[in-house]
Give the backbone structure.
Amino acid sequence: MTNTTTTAGPDPASPRHRLIIPGALAACLALAFVAHTLPGGALAAAIGVLPILLILGLLFAQVNMLIAALAGGVMAMIIGGLSLSDANAGLNEAVPKMLSITVPILNSAIAMAVFKAGGYASALTLVRRNIGGRIEYVGAFIVVLQAAATYMSGIGGGSAMVIAPLAFAAVGAIPAVIAGMSIASAACFTTSPASLETSVVSKLTGVPVADYVSLMQPFTLVFCAVAIVIAFVGTRRAKTLFEGEESDEFRTMSNAELWKRTIPAVFLMFAVIAGPFVNRAAGIPILGPMAYAVITLALVYFCSDFSLNKSVDAMIDGSSYILTRLLQVGLFLVFIGMIEKIGAFGTIAGLVKMAPPAVVVPAAVIAGFAIGFPAGAYVGSILMLVLPIAVALGFGPVAVGFVTIGVGFGSQVSLVNITMQALSAGFRIPVLQVSKGNAPYVLSCLVLLVALSFAFA
C-alpha cells in the first residue's frame, strides 16, 4: 500500500530550511557569549537554558532529533567549557545503558513474530465472523486489539502498521476509531513494560520498570476504556457497512483454525499483563521474559504455518525497530547529558518551583503535551527534555507517568509521529486529516489527564 501524502512542514532540501540550523546556532551562541560576559546571578544561570531552547526550536522545525541534539550539545559544551573527553565519556555511558534494556527489545521482537504469523489478523477475522452487522462492536474490538498489541510490544507505530489496514477493511476510515486507536496507543506505549518510554522513565527516575508499570496500570486502563467507548459510540453513529472482505489467507479457514492461530497472541498478552502477578504468587519467574519468549515462539510454530526457523527469523527481524530507536535515544542522551552538566534543568526546575505546588504537576503535563504536539516523531527523545525537569522537581513516579502520558497524547496529533503516519497509510487518508480528526478526542483526554494529576499526583 502506498501513501502519497506529504508531511506538512518545511522542505528539508529548501535553501531556507538549510539555514535554520546554522542561523539558530549562531544566534544562540551570540546570546550565550553576551550573557556569559555579564556578572553572575540569574542571568548567568539562565544562559544554560539556551541549548534546550535551541533543541526545541530545531525539533519544531522538523530537524532530525540527533542534529538538534548535536547543536544543543555543542552549545552546552561551549557555555560550560566542557571537553571532547566529557562527550566521549557520556557516549560510553549512555549508549550501552540504552542497549542493555533487555525486556523491551525481547517483547517487541516476540510481538512482531506474532504479528507476522497472523495472530492478530486471525483474531479480527473471528470477531468479524461472529459479530454480524453490529459494527460498533468491531470498532471497539479494533481499539482493544491496538491497545493489547501496543502494550505487549511497547510500540504504537509498529502495532498500527499491522492493525490499521485490517481496521480499514473491517469498518472503513471512521474518525472515532482512528482516534480511539491513537489514544489507546499513547496510554499503552507510555506505560508498557516493553516500551522505550517506560525504559526512559525508569532510567531517569531510578524506579524499577515493574514498579512503574504497576503504579500506572489503573490509569492505563482508564484511558483504554475511554478509547474503546469513543470507538464504540463513533462507529455506531457512523452506521456504515463493512468495507472489503476477509483476506484470501483467512477466508477458507474454519473458526477452529482461526482460534488456533490466535493462541500465541492471547498467551503473550496474558504473560505480559498477568506475568508479574503470577511470578509473585509462585515466588519464581514462571512467566519471566525468557520463559514466555520461548513459549510464545513455540506456540507460533505449532499454531501457524511458520517453520521453526521462520518463527525465530521473524523474532530477530522484529527487534530491529526498537534496537534502532534505542541507539538513537542513546545518542540523543549523550548531548542531553552535556546540557545537564551545565545546570540547565536545575535552573528550569527552580523557576517552576515558584508556582503553587497544587498546579506544578498539571502544568508539567500541559507542557509535555505542548512539546509532544509539534515534535512528536519519537516520544522517547522528547522525554529526555521534559522528564529531567520533573525529576529535579521531586515528582513521584505517578506524577512522572502523567507527564509521560501527556507527551504521548501530544504525539497523537503530531504530523511527524510514526503512529500517525501508520494510521494515515493504513486508513488511506492524509496525515493532516488524522491529526484534525484526533484533536477533539485527544484534547478531551488531556483534560481528564490534568484532572487526574490534580487528584492523584
Summary: The first helix runs from residue 15 to 18. Residues 1-13 have pLDDT under 50 and may be disordered. The CA atoms of residues 136 and 448 lie 24 Å apart. The chain has 23 helices and no strands.
